[in-house]
Amino acid sequence: MDNYSGKIEYRIEAPFFIIKLSDPGRLNSLAGNDYLYLAQLLEKADEDDCVYFTVLQSSGRFFSSGADYLSIGKAQETNKSEPELNKWLSNFVSRNVYVTDMFTRHRKILICCLNGPAIGLSAALCALCDIVYSMNENVYLLFPFASLGLVTEGATSVTLPLKLGNNATYQALMFNEPIKYDKLKGSVITKNYGLNDTEKFNTAVMDELRQKTNHLYLPSILGIKKLLMINIRDQLERANAVEVNDALKCWVKGEPQKRFKELSLKQRKHKL
Amino acid sequence: MDNYSGKIEYRIEAPFFIIKLSDPGRLNSLAGNDYLYLAQLLEKADEDDCVYFTVLQSSGRFFSSGADYLSIGKAQETNKSEPELNKWLSNFVSRNVYVTDMFTRHRKILICCLNGPAIGLSAALCALCDIVYSMNENVYLLFPFASLGLVTEGATSVTLPLKLGNNATYQALMFNEPIKYDKLKGSVITKNYGLNDTEKFNTAVMDELRQKTNHLYLPSILGIKKLLMINIRDQLERANAVEVNDALKCWVKGEPQKRFKELSLKQRKHKL
Amino acid sequence: MDNYSGKIEYRIEAPFFIIKLSDPGRLNSLAGNDYLYLAQLLEKADEDDCVYFTVLQSSGRFFSSGADYLSIGKAQETNKSEPELNKWLSNFVSRNVYVTDMFTRHRKILICCLNGPAIGLSAALCALCDIVYSMNENVYLLFPFASLGLVTEGATSVTLPLKLGNNATYQALMFNEPIKYDKLKGSVITKNYGLNDTEKFNTAVMDELRQKTNHLYLPSILGIKKLLMINIRDQLERANAVEVNDALKCWVKGEPQKRFKELSLKQRKHKL
Amino acid sequence: MDNYSGKIEYRIEAPFFIIKLSDPGRLNSLAGNDYLYLAQLLEKADEDDCVYFTVLQSSGRFFSSGADYLSIGKAQETNKSEPELNKWLSNFVSRNVYVTDMFTRHRKILICCLNGPAIGLSAALCALCDIVYSMNENVYLLFPFASLGLVTEGATSVTLPLKLGNNATYQALMFNEPIKYDKLKGSVITKNYGLNDTEKFNTAVMDELRQKTNHLYLPSILGIKKLLMINIRDQLERANAVEVNDALKCWVKGEPQKRFKELSLKQRKHKL
Amino acid sequence: MDNYSGKIEYRIEAPFFIIKLSDPGRLNSLAGNDYLYLAQLLEKADEDDCVYFTVLQSSGRFFSSGADYLSIGKAQETNKSEPELNKWLSNFVSRNVYVTDMFTRHRKILICCLNGPAIGLSAALCALCDIVYSMNENVYLLFPFASLGLVTEGATSVTLPLKLGNNATYQALMFNEPIKYDKLKGSVITKNYGLNDTEKFNTAVMDELRQKTNHLYLPSILGIKKLLMINIRDQLERANAVEVNDALKCWVKGEPQKRFKELSLKQRKHKL
Amino acid sequence: MDNYSGKIEYRIEAPFFIIKLSDPGRLNSLAGNDYLYLAQLLEKADEDDCVYFTVLQSSGRFFSSGADYLSIGKAQETNKSEPELNKWLSNFVSRNVYVTDMFTRHRKILICCLNGPAIGLSAALCALCDIVYSMNENVYLLFPFASLGLVTEGATSVTLPLKLGNNATYQALMFNEPIKYDKLKGSVITKNYGLNDTEKFNTAVMDELRQKTNHLYLPSILGIKKLLMINIRDQLERANAVEVNDALKCWVKGEPQKRFKELSLKQRKHKL
């Protein structure tokens, strides 16, 4: 597993496989290879027979501010000689198809400990989790596709209507609005811990999980997830293929790059 | 577009195509040809490349009190020589198949400004919109199919369970109960403006829409809707065909006509 | 209909077919044959042309505490000579396939009067009802599959995500948590009567139903249900087959029997 | 049933409901109301409990040469004052939605005795039959949509790929090629009687049917059809709605009318 | 695995798991428990990691003449005190749900060596195989559901239209016609060995299989089957549930028992 | 369009967009970038309003011998420092997702002039075409996935069962057998030109196409394809995503590379 990323740690405490985003200084933004590493960790968890739950944790203020602007700029510049198509096939399509698929077909229970805002592809992965806990009411999910010249990613064209309802999804996606706690409560978030420290939140979740899973027959859990997945599996896979090919056209035309750049300039001035 | 109806106005303020029901005196009830005109306006908006949002507004106390009883009576009497089947194929099936389809396959974002109650087919069209805003908490949707001897129309057999949930749909449809603000909030209505004047409400929505769409890359919006529609497109089309053919049997047997007539007599006495 | 059970009564008050669980002393727990009798009553209601609503009532504190432990133990011991496979095919698979199917394809409106907690297969049947009313806020549904070494039953792998949402379903199923009134409200329960006496509750519901159905054209009601069922019918049938065959493996391996036994011992000490 | 048409006869010889196109002089071309009458006969057969098989026969050289050009011209001219949209909603959409639906949801076994060529909507109905017998090898189906400025009708966008395969369907539809006996054999036609007289053919089929159904338990037949229909029912209904709404656009633009007229002129010269 | 049946043998010659029906004297008719044993052997093959192909062979003149009449009669008489419903749940529903499911979800390549006719459920299982070889042109499949008062079994409501096409399926099922070699060729049978001795046929197939699989990467084979199964898996499971519950009604009403009895009497006279 | 490949030519002769594989010396094997260029040409044809048919031609003996072994080897060696995962995401996943999608969503009629054998991904693209003509009876399609340690590519897990039937697909895929003319005839190939010179074949097809499309209303053709595609569109996209992610695992494990290498060595000795 050689996309090793300094920004992501993991440890196994059977039956839990705990993955932690650990770059709070840069709000846990992730470059392309970080997302690949994350997906590879999921694959590792999937193959480990003593693992029944895959837990995503983060650190600091944000769960993850999404794709790292710098890495996008870099991708664009490194292989200047390559055709635009090939560049974005390698840097966008192949990565998103793989990462989304690893979340989509994960056989263990995916639990997300949402300590703060999640943006873009990171928010999409959160929407692919089976269970989400929030640290407090300040969390939100933001899918800025419409303001970045993109379309939905990470199977959000399926997960958001499924989990938030159709009209709330349009409201959030069309106007680039954050989906706040009051919308996520019940539909995405099943428990709010009401804490203010990410480490304490992570610990509290793990303590409760350990206690709750104590008397369970763990193979039943995987059997139940398998049955539940049948309902949406095919739709998620279908969305994955269509989304990346639609987004590819955006990248080849160049709008997202332009808007990421503007955003990055603005951000340097104002701090997010 | 020659079903021109004095009850419906429209104007284009790119990227918005604004359609307004403007017959507040008769609570914006619509005759068969009015619905056709409404659908034709949607088609016009769909084909206009500078349009990204199609906004439905109304006027006065009601969004729309649904099908105009008089027009139903008239339809029945004009072509007395025609077989019952043919009469209702022309007056009901063909109109509903077309109107529902125009809403179902509309490619622009459909926004409904719900200033008051919507009933019957008008309520069904509201349920087909992507985004609904309410003027205040007095709005409701009413689907009186069970008391009129009809079955679901306008793909409500798909949209209501999808948006309101299965059991709430049964409760509303089986007992002819209005679906009030507290049920619509979150699931159908994504923002309540808390106003009491329809004109001010319409203006407030348009002002906010203009401001919200300012920084968006508009082609992304249509790309996102296209991806979201894949999930329900086929189901909506299927429902459209089955619903009209089931309802046709009701019309040919004559129960709805009888009940519409009773209702119309009652109404003349009590005012709605 | 010869699975006659002393625990279940029924009466016909057209257009209502009223089925009542009447074993409050044992919390309306049901043995295999009781479930079959219940399903046969549904079939009877389905075939009776003067019936439009099938109403499930119960008695005492619990709606139904689920499968009767004793009957499971007995099933296991009677036919000691039979292969394990055949034993559980007869005692589990065949019963669940039939009962679930009778609820899934029932053509009349299924109304559940939830006077108290429902557990296991009984709770699954409640989740298959079209409309659920609660007596008060103390009701809950409990699906203890994960702690009993089982997987979802009674098409709950479809009904729970459909009615409660995906993440709430995982939260409840994976950790064996009761789904309480605040989660059921709106999604499963469409009205709470706020009463404390089951008989008064049952009477209140029937009084309201009689009054509400007064002005309806009853054939419309069945026509509307037929249209609504198209959306989920195939999914429910598919789930039924997969669930029983997955559960069969659990029974053949013996985990559920062991855990039912433990539970039954514990219960004898503590009272539930 | 008041679309009574002198071109179509029927008789009931339980368990058979026999419908016969009886206008050999005009090659059994059918006007709009003739198709409605045909569909109404199907409905009558469907509701008759002593009917298990609905048999379509014809007379003369052609099974049916499709829509009667004259009736199309007439439709166009009668209601000159009506908007184009309304005219074609009444004359095309409503008729096709209904006729296709009556074939799609017919519960009895549909048997077509193909004595000769079938064209257009008539050919589409033949493709909707469960069983087709041919008189001899001169039969063919022709779907001249591409040369008439139309799109597929009568759910042929589903039935043809299903029965003939994908590529053979493209070959036939895109180039307006007749689908001849060698393609129909096995896929659509299950027996060829090798006769040259339509009356003898009709008699031979009925004789064989009577003998073949002798020892059957007839309710099983309807039960089997119900199970087989589940596979394609929803797809057929969905196609019905989409096809008519797509075709409507063609009619409103006017291309089919123009091409039907040309064809009619040509025909008058050359004889078909 | 304790339904051990003297009529079925098996042996493992990795990568082949070979199951052989070995009761040629009674034309390899199978009683309920024989079918269970067959399904259990499939499960055994599925779980054995060194198995990639599960090969079904038979012996003598028939592949399998289907359900053993005697066993049906016996089932009926043993538990005379049991309600009819329960009797057929145990003897028909549970067995068919399980056997069909074991074939439906089998992960190894299912190869059927069709040495002669297969009838009823045995023929249905043959239609569920991935690959079928015939000994000669005298083989046929017969599904006598319509003459036995039954409906389709073993997911034939899905497999037959899928493999033989829609109209050929109706022709065979509605008139109780054997599906002969010329119909099976290409669609079900991919190679005909043109032999006249079952043992030589079985040997010839195994020889060819060994040689053909020589250079393959066997894990690819299972990966490909997994991808191919996605297309029909859900449909097969759905059919399984609906078919058994529809058939159950037939058994409870008693028609199949009566007809099986008649058949058995006739047979004793004429020899099949 | 900068993946320009010397191996592929194109010209536009409205309404035809003609793409020609022009590397007969190396049997029209294609490297990764050649496939991208081919897909980009399809996109160009899709966007050109005067194009209604996209025709694929080839040259020499083979239509295309599939992926170029050398290019696979090169891909492997160039970026030795890159993680295996990333290498195959760039070289396999991203390319296949894009190429398959361009064929899957192509709106113009795709016609393949099959002059000789097609292998691997090239054969998969041929199976995605709407219409295929053969030069003579020596053509075949070969999908050597099982012998190369791969799984299905290019949506063949959907197209092959759809076009060839389920059992014929298993026979071909499991044993790495060429699918010869007699299997392709009717199902994939709709006309055989019986010629022996590729240039003459290409000319003959174009001549016939020009003549056949003469009297058609071309927009109807695209309208019909749109309706036909609804049936399989979602399935093809779903297959695309699942196939590439399953194949990715194969590449990361290294089996295909090993087997491609062996094949390439063997080939150098024997000539293909």
UniProtKB/TrEMBL annotation, chains A, B, C, D, E, F:
It holds the Pfam family ECH_1. It is found in: Peroxisome. Its main location: other. The keyword Isomerase applies. The keyword Transport does not apply. InterPro entries: ClpP/crotonase-like_dom_sf (IPR029045), ECH/Chromodomain_protein (IPR051053), Enoyl-CoA_hydra/iso (IPR001753). One of its GO terms (molecular function) is delta(3)-delta(2)-enoyl-CoA isomerase activity. SUPFAM superfamilies: ClpP/crotonase. One of its GO terms (cellular component) is peroxisomal matrix. GO terms for biological process: fatty acid beta-oxidation. Pathway: Lipid metabolism; fatty acid beta-oxidation. Keywords: Isomerase, Peroxisome. It comes from the Eukaryota. Belongs to the enoyl-CoA hydratase/isomerase family. This is Uncharacterized protein. The lineage of its organism: Eukaryota, Fungi, Dikarya, Ascomycota, Saccharomycotina.
